[in-house]
């Protein structure tokens, strides 16, 4: 008998069916993964299992735990949630109580579920199991890093010794190195406790790393299910094939103009933030960028990689003229500036593509108005010129000119990112700074956007500065890679060379944290 | 438009508010009796077919007085809201867009104004130029300025962190253009909701100011003035107090319901058009 058996699960909001006819079973101790893009209904499925569906959701079908239907009464369901099923959420900061020491939060979870428990003994044991020190228990959530918070969440989920752990995108808010550590921890704990795992993610590689069996969801339907190895190496359905192909960034090399002379030079740029009273560094200014020095040549694609908070986005902001360096200067074709004093005549030569396609358009302006905004930098364009330039830009990114009259909410994430690229191209810039251009996009459209970027580079001889933490994407796109840590550039080289023989400690960690390509068997911990 | 009426509280609030407003507007062209017509022999009449709400201590028709008073209340509160928005919103936007010393100045200025309740401002104005409806408008308007400045600044600050504002800066827009093109349209719903709340507060303030004799002066009338006229007779003729009192209560409730409904309808965070956002 399976531990969890879901049959014919449908969830609807009014007339809108968001999950339809889901059926799957999870055996004891099995690690099961659900893969799906945003909006595919994977999170709702997990909430249905926990009995935590939002108001207004109607559920059909049956969910059996250990051969018994889930109780209807909220009181009994609450007991069950604690005792039998543990859950780890996506964003640990909002899932933890900010006003309680984490030790007490773990103790609370134990007391609620196990009678006459010895929390003094149990809490240190759990902290140790998730790889935290005893002293971390005395801290408040905001004093812990993202990875540590997620470890606390796992400890809370484990407190009741559940038969099954549900992890909903547990690592998507974490950076690459932490992500790998948390995934390894989950795998290790599941193996040690013989606990079943329901792992929900859009990241095929993470699922491939953890799970033995997977289900692929698309628009609320189960598309394919089977052994992880089989699904990833020989996907049967079109959609799965598309997903698997998209997760292996294969940007075909194109005929590109040769790399020319130096376009942009960053010369000893340093940025200090003054900050009042933040944790331990109350008075000392925070050095976000520390004497960074590099150059980008015409037609080159340079990547800047590093963990979150290493200052790479701040550096990009200085280069495009949104922030101002404390010391040092940037030179664009010999013209020197310090950031926000970028001369207006040069602004059209540098464009920025933002990370989040949903925040980068004003919801109250039409796409045409938003796209036309940078053309203010080119005085003397007539109405017809502007129109022609907009159409040219929209067509260059493979979209239709009719879209100019529509509003941002009508477009999907991938389309918006294309439009954001179109906006960056509209002034015909020389340098395009791309801040995590695909990390907010669904897996299946990432490949398309990267291919578009490669094509545009070949077509217009663009120079790219890509900022990312995604090594696979960087390996596929970049000519040269800079590795950044705590505001300093610590390593530089060609991608093949850096990833094959990393020198610096951080680079080695980053390369080691890279998840194995899918299709390979999940390594047993 | 259909979205607006899918919220029942909004529909009820708006319909109630608009009917009070219609009664007020009607009083400009027609009232059952002229409000300044004093007719002592017919005073303290109860509800009669001729006088729908009776007559007051001077024999004036209560229905006409309530209609006219409703108009005064709306007019005073609306103009005060317009003053508050007209001055406060640009100040708040400037604080958010420029930051630094401008922001400091705006915040300290609004602290300063906050320190004086509308009544103190009204007493000050009365001491300078004498009582009257326009003084009430100015006093309540000044009181509204910091409220709108704070709401506009708060809303604009949260919008200003979004990428499209940075994109606007990259396109070479100055602070004023950023505020006008990107910040203001995105805080409009916030301001409309705050506007309805300030409307109802303004109606209460007007009633309060008229009651203590700093607002509307006879022969014009307002709901607060009617309360004041009736208070000495409350134990003998409670009806004269109840009518304007109930009118104030109902108008304020209608405006608050409409404001709550507007917030639900306009706030995208509370709007659940697409349940898929959960997944």
UniProtKB/TrEMBL annotation, chain A:
Pfam families hit by this protein: ABC_tran
Keywords: ATP-binding, Nucleotide-binding, Transport
Any one GO MF annotation of this record: ATP hydrolysis activity
Protein known as: Peptide/nickel transport system ATP-binding protein
PANTHER family attached to this UniProt entry: D,D-DIPEPTIDE TRANSPORT ATP-BINDING PROTEIN DDPF-RELATED, TRANSPORT ATP-BINDING PROTEIN
The organism's place on the tree of life at top rank: Bacteria
Family: Belongs to the ABC transporter superfamily.
GO BP terms in the entry: transmembrane transport
Domain ABC transporter, residue spans: 4-244, 264-511
Organism: Devosia psychrophila
Keyword Nucleotide-binding belongs to the record: yes
InterPro entries in the record: AAA+_ATPase, ABC_transp_ATP-bind, ABC_transporter-like_ATP-bd, ABC_transporter-like_CS, P-loop_NTPase
TrEMBL record, chain B:
Ranges of residues in domain ABC transmembrane type-1: 70-259
Keyword flag Chloroplast: no
The keyword Transmembrane helix belongs to this UniProt entry's keyword annotation: yes
PROSITE patterns for this protein: ABC_TM1
A single GO BP: transmembrane transport
Segments passing through the bilayer: 12-33, 74-100, 112-143, 190-214, 234-259
UniProt keyword terms in alphabetical order: Cell membrane, Membrane, Transmembrane, Transmembrane helix, Transport
GO cellular component term, pick one: plasma membrane
Superkingdom classification of source: Bacteria
Membrane topology, as annotated: Multi-pass membrane protein
Locations listed in the record: Cell membrane
Family according to the record: Belongs to the binding-protein-dependent transport system permease family.
UniProt-recorded name of the protein: Peptide ABC transporter permease
Organism (species): Devosia psychrophila
Lineage: Bacteria, Pseudomonadati, Pseudomonadota, Alphaproteobacteria, Hyphomicrobiales
């Amino acid at each position: 008998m399976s531990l969890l058996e879901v049959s014919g699960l449908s969830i609807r909001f009014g007339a809108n069916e968001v999950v339809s006819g889901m059926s799957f079973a999870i055996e004891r101790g099995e690690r099961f993964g659900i893969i799906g893009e945003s909006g595919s209904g994977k999170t709702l499925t997990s909430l249905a299992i926990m009995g935590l569906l939002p108001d207004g959701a109607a559920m059909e079908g049956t969910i059996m735990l250990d051969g018994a239907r889930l109780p209807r009464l909220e009181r009994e369901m609450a007991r069950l949630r604690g005792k039998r099923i543990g859950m780890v959420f996506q964003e640990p900061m909002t899932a933890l109580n900010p006003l309680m020491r984490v030790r007490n939060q773990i103790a609370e979870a134990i007391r609620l579920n196990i009678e006459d428990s010895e929390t003094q003994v149990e809490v240190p044991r759990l902290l140790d199991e998730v790889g935290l020190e005893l002293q971390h228990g005395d801290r408040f959530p905001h004093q812990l890093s993202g990875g540590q918070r997620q470890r606390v969440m796992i400890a809370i989920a484990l407190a009741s010794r559940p038969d099954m752990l549900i992890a909903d995108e547990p690592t998507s808010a974490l950076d690459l190195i932490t992500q790998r550590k948390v995934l390894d921890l989950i795998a290790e704990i599941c193996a040690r406790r013989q606990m079943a795992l329901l792992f929900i993610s859009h990241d095929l590689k993470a699922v491939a790393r953890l799970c033995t069996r997977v289900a692929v969801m698309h628009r609320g339907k189960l598309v394919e299910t089977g052994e992880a190895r089989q699904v990833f190496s020989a996907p049967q359905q079109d959609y799965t094939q598309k997903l698997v192909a998209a997760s292996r960034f294969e940007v075909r090399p194109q005929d590109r103009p040769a790399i020319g002379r130096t376009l942009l030079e960053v010369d000893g740029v340093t940025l200090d933030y003054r900050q009042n009273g933040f944790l331990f560094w109350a008075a000392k200014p925070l050095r976000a960028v520390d004497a960074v020095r590099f150059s980008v040549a015409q037609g080159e694609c340079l990547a800047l990689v590093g963990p979150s908070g290493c200052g790479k986005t701040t550096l990009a902001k200085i280069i495009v003229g949104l922030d101002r360096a404390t010391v040092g200067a940037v030179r664009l074709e010999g013209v020197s500036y310090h950031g926000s004093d970028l001369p207006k005549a040069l602004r059209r030569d540098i464009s920025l593509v933002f990370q989040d396609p949903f925040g980068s358009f004003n919801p109250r302006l039409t796409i045409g108005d938003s796209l036309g905004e940078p053309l203010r930098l080119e005085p003397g364009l007539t109405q017809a010129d502007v129109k022609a330039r907009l159409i040219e830009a929209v067509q260059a990114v493979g979209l239709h000119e009719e879209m100019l009259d529509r509003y941002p909410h009508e477009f999907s994430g991938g389309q918006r990112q294309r439009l954001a690229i179109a906006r960056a191209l509209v002034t015909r810039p020389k340098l395009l700074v791309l801040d995590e251009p695909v990390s907010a996009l669904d897996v299946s459209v990432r490949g398309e956007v990267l291919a578009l970027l490669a094509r545009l580079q070949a077509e217009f001889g663009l120079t790219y500065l890509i900022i990312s933490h995604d090594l696979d994407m960087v390996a596929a796109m970049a000519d040269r890679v800079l590795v950044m840590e705590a505001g300093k550039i610590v390593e530089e080289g060609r991608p093949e060379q850096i990833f094959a023989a990393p020198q610096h400690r951080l680079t080695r960690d980053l390369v080691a944290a890279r998840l194995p390509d899918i299709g390979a068997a999940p390594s047993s911990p | 438009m259909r979205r607006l009426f899918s919220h029942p509280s909004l529909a009820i609030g708006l319909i109630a508010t608009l009917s009070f407003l219609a009664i007020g507007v009607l009083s400009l062209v027609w009232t059952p009796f002229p409000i300044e017509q004093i007719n002592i022999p017919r005073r303290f009449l109860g509800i009669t077919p001729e006088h729908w709400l009776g007559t007051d201590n001077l024999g004036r028709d209560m229905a006409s007085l309530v209609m006219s008073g409703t108009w005064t209340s709306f007019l005073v509160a609306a103009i005060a809201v317009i003053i508050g928005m007209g001055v406060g919103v640009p100040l708040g936007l400037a604080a958010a867009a420029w930051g630094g010393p401008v922001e400091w100045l705006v915040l300290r200025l609004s602290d300063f104004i906050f320190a004086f309740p509308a009544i103190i401002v009204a007493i000050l104005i009365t001491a300078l130029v004498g009582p009257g409806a326009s003084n009430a408008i100015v006093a309540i308007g000044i009181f509204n300025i910091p409220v709108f400045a704070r709401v506009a600044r708060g809303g604009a600050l949260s919008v200003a962190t979004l990428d499209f504002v940075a994109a606007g800066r990259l396109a070479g827009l100055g602070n004023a253009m950023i505020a006008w093109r990107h910040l203001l349209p995105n805080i409009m719903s916030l301001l409309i909701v705050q506007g309805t709340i300030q409307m109802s507060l303004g109606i209460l303030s007007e009633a309060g100011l008229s009651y203590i004799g700093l607002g509307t002066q006879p022969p014009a009338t307002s709901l607060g003035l009617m309360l004041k006229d009736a208070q000495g007779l409350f134990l003998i003729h409670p009806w004269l107090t109840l009518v304007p009192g109930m009118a104030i209560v109902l108008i304020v409730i209608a405006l608050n319901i409409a404001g709550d409904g507007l917030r639900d309808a306009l706030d995208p965070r509370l709007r659940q058009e697409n349940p898929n956002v959960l997944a």
